[in-house]
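Thread: Newbie trying to understand structure tokens

Hi all, I'm a second-year student working on a class project, and my supervisor (Dr. K.) asked me to get a predicted structure for one chain before our next meeting. I've only ever worked with sequences, so writing a 3D structure as a token string is new to me. If someone could post the tokens and maybe explain what I'm looking at, I'd be very grateful. Here's the chain:
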Amino acid sequence: MTSKPRDDLRDQPLDNPDMNLFTDGSSYYEEGWKCTGFAVTTETKVLLAGPLPPTLGAQGAEIVALTKAAQYAIGIRVNLYTDSKYAFGVCHATGMLWKERGFLTSAGKTIAHGQQIKELLEAIQLPSELAVIYIKAHTNQENQLAKGNELVDQAAKAAARQVIFAMTLTHQGELDLELPDMQKLYEELPEEERQLWEKLGAEQQNGQWTLGGKPLLPKRYLIPIAQWHHEKTHGGPENTALRVQRLWAAPGIYTAIRRVCEGCRLCKEYASLKIKAPAGKRPPATYPFQKLQIDYVEMPRAMGYAYLLVIIDQLSGWVEAFPTGKNDSKVVVKALLREIWSS
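---
Reply by user tm_fold:
Sure, no problem. This is what the structure looks like when written as tokens:
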């Protein structure tokens, strides 16, 4: 018979807890990479966040987030909030069922996220008192629960993007970045650049600098990042800038991108090829009303009419016009059959 991981585990909030923690996992594709990450926050502050192996997916990331939160809350009374029904169900029902079955399916194969579920069931024992509560995501409400859930959602997405940050930098050989050690980005940051960031309203937390919710890109990495994104599509400066700014807050990136685009050998070669398509030809009509030019003109609505159907004979230039209530193909066919080709 199955039971909860601990007898006192609740699915409703504890009164006067030591902490309220929000958990979330995120998994999505961006720039051709699968990004997966987790986060743990309070209502106002990010406590834990980082990237995860892309093979986990969103459900695995949700389990990891709850595990990290329970480990963080060792020895205290805590409410853990999640918007994942899957993770909530693992804590209160299916987790112990899978444990009794050895985390195996009826076919004897390991269940999805078996190791992560095992670690979660162990971590649940660490707080002195614990409630794991399900809350709805993206409710657009203004209470503390909604704000905390929105913060953790954004933090998990940002943490997942760290995979791309590392790939773009290590691809260029500019930085030996081992996830999730994003602090390496800001080693030997010039004082002048730090002061500029502060004037722009940047924030520093756990050794990482962010502006507008995105990590700040130091000046010395502008060129390699611009080059990496430009080589993906060989688009112009505006296109490349949009790709960079989806991921980074990067003061000075436009100058770097222009340098990269102007120096791109492949772009220069294609720009020098002047391929001019031959002018289109249309054989002239040989008798009246053989070829017609047809279009609608929108008019002020009156007496049930809103459009003017105009038909011009290409050979003679003769014009026929008919007021209509609609501007679809059925009206055109009726006009041709009744007014143009009827005789």
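A couple of things are worth pointing out once you decode it. Residues 170-180 have pLDDT under 50 and may be disordered. The domain at 19-160 is CATH 3.30.420.10 (Nucleotidyltransferase; domain 5). Feel free to ask follow-ups in this thread.
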